[in-house]
Amino acid sequence: MIHAATGRNLDTASALETQCGAMYSETLSAHTTYHQQSSAAVETRPRVWLITGYIRICYSTIRCSSGFGRRLVTSALARGDRVIATARTVDDIKILSSPNLNVLQLDVTAGFEVIKARLDQAAKIWGQIDVLVNNAGVGYLGLLEEGRSSLLEKQFKVNVIGTLDVTNAALPHLRASKSATVVMLGSRSAYRTERAGLGFYSASKAAVHSLGETLSVELAPFSIKVLIVAPGSFKTEGIYGQKFFTSNSIPAYDELRNIAMKRFSAVPGTQKGDPDKAMEVVVDVVKGEGKAKGRPWPLYLALGDDADEGIRQKSTKLLRHVDEWGDVVRSVNFDT
């Protein structure tokens, strides 16, 4: 009897889903032109950017980090836009002097209600938020068995939960904008996952990419664009400044852990990516200028030749699987 009732509910749900799906498809279709239109459609009014993770900590006795956030701020301001730069702490931060820049304290791990209150406050500065850049993030290095779920939770709390909380808190203001964009800072590590020690970080960035893909569909009816940025290796990557997790060392992993630690410690200073060029391209895409002029809107924006290589290798591997195992893959449907 339970199964029968469940079956009727599912049939009803299916019918409703079909009806609603058709209506939703029409809504999406109405916005397809907007999302596929050339990035050359440039607005003249200043946009208001809210950028998380402008800088982690910068005391007067410590040199400010030169991350993606600072470069985004600089580029957006240089093009006549307004910026609300957020950071976990703003005490003694050295920032650019500009009437178009405001700095706001924001901890992306504070929880939705706290974040919403801060973003509501931010929106009152210039009466709007047009571009949200989810730049705040951290990378924890460690082997999966040694780091356990506790390190995964710590990683996801910033990169995934924090990103979703900030995005959800900003959406009421973005919907009110005439031209809104959500930028998700992902990573080529979302595709290049087969590296010992990078599992926690890679998993979080893969989740960020997945959230961005779903958001691109859910936000289409509101003409809100989504851009998933997947940078390769740049000299700003804070992940290499994190110590490798060794608090739960398992002797069986000693050799592998040492190899991974040496590999990651050798990276800083060898990255080929120019962060200035990368963030200029991001602003180009959002504004439909420069290298983005005349091009269709990209859901994904890979940056760096290593990002290009990582995507191609992942795609090739998956295609090889369905080529070699295709008969098995397609052999599990019900017989007709």
UniProtKB/TrEMBL annotation:
Keywords on record: Oxidoreductase
InterPro entries, sorted: NAD(P)-bd_dom_sf, SDR_fam, SDR_oxidoreductase
A single MF term (Gene Ontology): oxidoreductase activity
Presence of the UniProt keyword Oxidoreductase in the record: yes
Matches recorded under Gene3D superfamilies: NAD(P)-binding Rossmann-like Domain
Pfam families from the UniProt entry: adh_short
Sequence similarity: Belongs to the short-chain dehydrogenases/reductases (SDR) family.
PANTHER family with a match to the protein in the record: SHORT CHAIN DEHYDROGENASE (PTHR43976), SHORT-CHAIN DEHYDROGENASE_REDUCTASE FAMILY PROTEIN (PTHR43976:SF16)
Protein name (record): NAD(P)-binding protein
